């Protein structure tokens, strides 16, 4: 009997579309299409685009490469790194702060943006603070910076 194959945990990126079809907008632009061409793209929720990458640093670098498009076509860019949390996402500014060493991962679980999941889509988010018990089955939980929370 062979041992089960254990896949390595990977960092994930989720781009949330704004008022347009995020997949179409990104893949119809040559530079964005090239930046995304090496990734397997999925749509875990309506009008989102998700992919896996090797690390938090690689995820932040990809988001930086796509910045021109994200400002125009995305309402949010999220990163989930298994070394920080298996269930909670990081906002882009928070992921950048951790990557740059300005924050430690254990200093990031006090302020959240919560997206309810309704009929396979992300609904309008709300904010929460503290260590509430979140419903990870029906909510997408995103750790955010203090500035994002207060803004």
Automatic annotation (TrEMBL):
Lineage top rank: taxon: Archaea
Protein's name according to its UniProt entry: DUF5804 family protein
Organism for this UniProt entry: Halococcus dombrowskii
InterPro entries: DUF5804 (IPR043827)
